[in-house]
From TrEMBL:
Pfam families found in the cross-reference section: Integrase_H2C2
Biased composition (Basic and acidic residues): 140-154
InterPro entries: Integrase_H2C2, Retrovirus_Pol_polyprotein
Region of interest (Disordered), residue spans: 140-160
Protein name in UniProt: Integrase zinc-binding domain-containing protein
Coiled-coil ranges per UniProt: none
Gene3D superfamilies: 1.10.340.70
Residue ranges of every copy of the Integrase zinc-binding domain listed in the record: 18-75
Length: 160
């Protein structure tokens, strides 16, 4: 640290002692029309060219995401949420099948009903699939039995 003309410098950069002056400088490097509302890193790089204060990056990182103009005008950089249109109603059973993966369920204080509901859904589905399999096997056996009843012996003579 050194003093020149009554000002404090740190590694040839003007040291900014008060929070109010720090906020004003961040405002000048980010908010004014010529600054262009740059992101955290670019605003920080602009500031460190001439100024210094402890935890400068943290100050910039706290200020920029709260900039009112940026919040109103810049596009969100997160992926859009899931489907916003309802799915069509299926015409027949199993026309549309979906599976929900439930991970990291929150701890619940009412006897774990959330986890139980997920488990019950799975067990219900499993029981339904087993019942469908049994019915298909019975229907297959019945069709075979009826086909065997209609079957008759046919004998062919030479030349037929």
């Amino acid at each position: 640290m050194e003093t020149r003309d009554g000002l404090l410098y740190y590694k040839n950069k003007l040291a900014i002692p008060t929070k109010k002056l720090q906020r004003n400088l961040i405002f000048e490097c980010h908010d004014v029309p010529g600054a262009g509302h740059l992101a955290i890193e670019k605003t920080y790089l602009r500031l460190i060219e001439d100024f210094y204060w402890p935890n400068m990056f943290s100050s910039v990182a706290a200020y920029v995401p709260r900039c009112d103009a940026c919040l109103r005008n810049k596009q969100a950089n997160q992926k859009p949420f899931g489907l916003l249109q309802p799915l069509p109603v299926p015409a027949r059973p199993y026309d549309s099948v979906s599976i929900d993966f439930v991970c990291a369920l929150p701890r619940v204080h009412f006897q774990g009903r959330t986890a139980t509901a997920v488990e019950d859904f799975h067990l219900r589905r499993q029981a339904l699939l087993e019942e469908v399999k049994e019915q298909l096997e019975r229907a297959n056996e019945e069709a075979k039995r009826k086909a065997d009843q209609k079957k008759r012996e046919t004998t062919f003579l030479p030349g037929d």
